[in-house]
Design brief:
Length: 545
């Protein structure tokens, strides 16, 4: 496997044409999948295009039936799917249900019900042109083959949610799951099989970055990518060669601002969950907490106390709140960032190191150079924006805390980042919270809430700055999966247009009137143009050429 990247410490190469995935909590093998070659990927995309030709003709009712059946297939095996997600990614079993399965089921019911309405033809207000008997509407066409290339951190909900939206819009789908979580990706294929999907309408190709690259090169009609900024740039560059349009959901360094009037118990509980759920491996994890200096000590103490109470271990157990990280590479980044905080003068309040797990089996075959992929949830005080670890994405269980003294300073610190995915503001004063929220450069900003809005399928998801391009979810996300077409009709086609040939002094005088009167948008002003317009239309009508 030539292009194997170093993220694959829990998904190692077995035979040269297969990937083996290991449970990050125990080191035990979860399963193996083939690495699809570029030729195979090309054939998959060809077959997908054929399936699209049939699927595009289906009614919304038929599409809805498929999505409802897929929901039923998931509902009949919630625990089985959650255990697979947990074993492949290391996240707690309960969290696989709360943060992946439940939200995607909700998204499925929403788009099964609402896509017809969201994609119904829309009349456009064309102002004074309407008085001339013209009307305009937008109708929406599917795009064709939608390629979905997700990351490993939400290996079920992200690709499945995007697939459902693409299918409801009339597209066919090819998913290339992350090399760390291919079996969860395959499970999505099985769910659609169970639901009675048409042949080749939903296909899964497995492999690493080279398989993803082959999928991009196979000229799908849209690419939905979730992953790092570096890979996003590569994909955008490759896709540009064919003018394939791309949605990029990239990294984050999300800020949480706690004002002096916030409910500190709520803020502390929100911060701990926002920073440590999925072991901090969410694109929208709280990676920077800015607290007003007056309440910094109190909030930090509450956060540390809650963090110390968290149970860490094998995510297959119901009472575990924080599981293993997904890969050795991620743990190394966290170790590096914690070291950077220490060296730069910040203080480790709790955590700060890799920890042992009682569940790691002897003779662990994962091949990592340390015992476990568990990293203690780590709270850091005295952080400042000039520390490297406050600037680069960590993607792990660290919660660095910095202070501010005014609202303007908090906004400036939060915006001082190349990223802008999500942020949150905590205050008892809602209007103050919203005023600050609007000044934060991020795709989603919550007031007194944190992280979870990816789980609301009705709302748009996407980043400012290096956190991405385009949107998934919500009506805006659905628009990424269709080709809008403008239909313009002239209902009173009795007279020629005044702007047609021949040009003449009368024409030029009329065109001046268009510029000064008609283009003002004012009916009153345009009425003054009528005599000139009639003269001009007669000129065009009587012209023999
Ligand atoms: P990654 O960029 O390493 O890989 C993502 C996917 O791209 C994988 O499936 C991989 O096989 C594939 N890939 C790699 N090279 C490729 C290439 N040249 N062409 C095509 N495909 C290629 O990212 P990762 O480590 O899997 O994910 C972590 C990153 O994802 C973090 O930065 C995180 O913030 C981000 N993320 C963002 C969102 C969001 O909604 N914005 C959600 C989840 C994760």
């Amino acid at each position: 496997m030539g292009g194997q990247n170093d993220a694959m410490s829990t998904a190692l190469q077995g035979q040269s044409d297969e990937i083996i995935t290991y449970n990050p909590a125990t080191g035990e093998e979860v399963g193996r999948v083939r690495i699809n070659s570029a030729d195979e990927v090309n054939s998959v995309v060809d077959r997908s295009r054929q399936a699209f030709q049939l699927w595009r003709q289906t009614s919304f009712t038929e599409r809805r039936r498929l999505v409802v059946a897929a929901r039923e297939a998931i509902l009949s095996d919630i625990d089985g799917i959650a255990h697979l997600i947990s074993r492949e990614s290391g996240k707690p079993f309960g969290e696989a249900i709360s943060m992946e399965i439940a939200p995607v089921l909700d998204l499925m019911q929403h788009f099964a019900r609402s896509t017809k309405k969201l994609l119904s033809p829309k009349k456009i207000n064309i102002g004074l042109y309407a008085l001339m008997g013209r009307s305009s509407r937008i109708v929406y066409h599917p795009l064709g083959v939608v390629a979905i290339i997700p990351a490993w951190n939400y290996p079920f909900s992200i690709p499945l949610g995007e697939a459902v939206m693409a299918l409801m819009a009339g597209n066919s789908v090819v998913i290339k799951p992350s090399e760390l979580t291919p079996l969860t990706g395959m499970k999505i294929g099985e769910i659609f099989e169970k639901a009675g999907v048409a042949p080749h309408l939903v296909q899964i190709v497995t492999g690493d970055g080279s398989t993803g690259d082959a999928l991009v090169k196979a000229k799908p009609d849209k690419i939905m990518f979730t992953g790092s900024v570096a890979t996003g740039k590569k994909i955008a560059a490759e896709a540009a060669k064919n003018l394939t349009s791309v949605v990029l959901e990239l990294g984050g360094k999300d800020a949480m601002i706690v004002l002096e009037d916030a409910n500190l118990d709520m803020a502390a509980a929100g911060a701990v969950w926002g920073a440590f759920c999925n072991a901090g491996q969410s694109c929208s994890s709280v990676e920077r907490l800015y607290v007003h200096e007056k309440v910094a000590k109190e909030l930090t103490a509450k956060i540390v106390e809650r963090t110390k109470q968290m149970k860490q271990g094998d995510g297959s157990r119901d009472d575990i709140s924080i599981g293993a990280m997904s890969s050795e590479r991620q743990v190394k980044i966290v170790e590096d960032h914690v070291a950077n905080f220490r060296e730069s003068g910040a203080r480790i309040e709790t955590g700060g190191k890799r920890c042992a797990s009682p569940h790691v089996s002897k003779g662990n075959t994962r091949g990592v150079d340390s015992d476990t992929l568990f990293f203690e949830p780590t709270v850091i005080s005295g952080a400042t924006n000039d520390m490297r670890a406050m600037r680069d994405e960590t993607f792990g269980p660290t919660l660095p805390i910095a202070t501010f003294s005014t609202d303007d300073e908090a906004i400036r610190l939060a915006n001082d980042s190349e990223f802008g995915l999500t942020a949150s503001v905590w205050t008892r004063n809602k209007s103050r919270g919203e005023r600050i929220a609007r000044q934060i450069e991020a795709g989603s900003v919550c007031v007194n809430e944190v992280l979870y809005t990816h789980g609301i399928g009705q709302t748009p998801w996407g980043g400012f700055k290096n956190s991405g391009r385009g949107r998934t979810h919500g009506a805006l996300g659905l628009m990424e999966l269709v080709q809008p077409q403008h239909i313009h009709v002239n209902r009173i086609s009795l007279f020629p247009n005044a702007w047609w040939f021949p040009y003449s002094p009368t024409a030029v005088e009329t065109f001046r009137g268009f510029a000064t009167k008609f283009a003002s948008g004012s009916l009153l002003k345009t009425a003054g143009l009528l005599p000139q317009l009639v003269k001009r239309i007669l000129e065009v009508r009587n012209w023999k050429g």
